[in-house]
Amino acid sequence: MNDRGNASARLIAPLATLATVLLSIAGAAPLRAQGGAPPFDVPAWAFPTAPPPRPGTVPVVPDSVTRHTVPNSTRHYTRKQVGNAFDIPDWFPRQHPPMPAPVQYGVRPEGRACGFCHLPDGQGRPENGTLAGLPVEYTVRQLRAMREGTRGSANPAASPNPMIAVARGFSDDEVRIAARYYARLQLTRRNIVREVAQVPTTRVAGLLYALDGTGREPIDGRLLEVPESIERHDLRDPWVRYTTYVPTGSLTRGRRLATQGPAGPTTSCGACHGPQLLGTGDVPPIAGRAPSNILRQLINFRTRARRDSTAASMYPVVDSLTIHDMVALAAYVGSLPPSRTPRK
Ligand code: HEC
Ligand code: HEC
Q1: I need a labelling partner for 56 at 20 to 30 A (CA). Which of 140, 236, 342, 343 fits?
Q2: pLDDT score, position 235
Q3: Residues 11, 155 contacting (CB under 8 angstroms)
Q4: Which atom of ligand 1 is nearest to the CA of 284?
Q5: Phi/psi of residue 79, each to 5°?
Q6: With 70 as the cut, is the pLDDT of residue 254 above it?
């Protein structure tokens, strides 16, 4: 099975009525296309979202007997332990400094531990994002924006964004402790980008795609990021690799857009994100980060789902982009080295 059936279920940003209803039920601020954002069709395939369980479905109780491990780790955890968001699994404790409490234990009841989703070494997972190396003030501002409803998701079906409840569960001080920890860590490469005409068929697994092993199909303009092993992804192995499939020609097109700027030199990515796109000041690094997440963020700026105080810098950059341009940019930026001195 794949998600292409949903591709026709297009969402037009200014037609936010449905979003308003869904989000007000969810308690978050409604999504609006603001500041004269030109209309944009949000492709559903960019936001893989497994449907909620049918009413009456008995939730699967995580196994608390069988112990699992991941390559090169000496530790063993049961599925129940892997799923504990208030005392998280740590497969490689020697690969990062000791975690502060918000990262390892979180704050009950809503503040699940940051490391549960973004992992102890801050490499994150494509569906949430990399925290390693993010500027402290940027992280603090993003969580404030999530709490206040100025950072949402362009896809109402993906709302409420799991981060929103989490952000509400932490104080600014607790967020700052976590942000300082992650800011010192270094991002290492987790994904490879492959240009293809045909892509292996996929299924939606939670908030990302997994290979379903049944065949191949045309890529059809999409960007699909899949783990080499869904099992290791589910075990929260920080070293699982991801392959990002993009249409042939994306990298060249992305490089041209990134260096020349989609709307002239002031919109070249390096003008604000630094010459190697490793970030400057409070502007976040983008090189080498998960392409599917870069793509979603470009869409979020384009639809004004991100409209916190500093998001407006990105509007002139994204407003002239087509979805094909965004795919190309996400592929190119995601394929760059994520740091000057890569850690082994
Ligand atoms: C339950 C899973 C979960 C937990 C726990 C969690 N996050 Fe997130 N986080 C997400 C998801 C999903 C996103 C992507 C949201 C989006 O981009 O709209 C995200 C996005 C972010 C971003 C934006 C990254 C970017 O590049 O713009 C930051 C910053 C962040 N989280 C920080 C934190 C911090 C700090 C904590 C702990 C205090 C935390 N998160 C806990 C799931 C989680
Ligand atoms: C005029 C300055 C400027 C330019 C030019 C610019 N950016 Fe940005 N970008 C920013 C700022 C500032 C932010 C943080 C926005 C916020 O705080 O919400 C950002 C955020 C982002 C993010 C979100 C990162 C995350 O962690 O969620 C992505 C992706 C991004 N930019 C991609 C690009 C790409 C690709 C280009 C070139 C095509 C580009 N940017 C050009 C200023 C700029």
Answers
A1: 236
A2: 97
A3: yes
A4: 26
A5: -60, -35
A6: yes
Residue 329 sits at φ, ψ, to 5 deg, of: -65, -45
- Residue 79 CA to residue 236 CA, distance in Å, equals 10
Write down the mean pLDDT value for the chain: 88
Residue 342 has pLDDT above 60, yes or no: no
Q: DSSP 3-state assignment of 297?
A: helix
Residue 56: the pLDDT is: 86
Read off the pLDDT band of 77 (50, 70, 90): very high
Longest CA pairwise span in the chain (Å)? 58
pTM beyond cutoff 0.85: yes
- The phi and psi torsions of 174 (rounded to 5 degrees) equal -65, -40
Which CB contacts under 8 angstroms, 24+ apart, belong to 319-326?
Answer: 319/37, 319/38, 319/263, 320/262, 320/263, 321/257, 321/262, 323/41, 323/43, 323/221, 324/221, 324/247, 324/253, 325/253, 325/257, 325/262, 326/295, 326/298, 326/299, 326/302
Report the sign of the C-alpha dihedral through residues 229, 233, 236, 239, in that order: positive
DSSP-assigned letter for residue 44: G
Query: What distance in angstroms lies between residue 143's CA and the mean position of ligand 2's atoms?
Result: 17
Distance CA 115, CA 87 (A): 9
Rounded to whole angstroms, what are the CA distances from 315 to 21, 34, 151, 305, 306? Answer: 26, 11, 14, 11, 10
Query: Which domains are seen in the chain, by residue range?
Result: 189-335 (1.10.760.10)
Using alpha carbons, select from 230, 222, 188 the residue that is nearest to residue 331.
Answer: 222
314 C-alpha to ligand 2 centroid (Å): 5
Quote the pLDDT of residue 20.
35
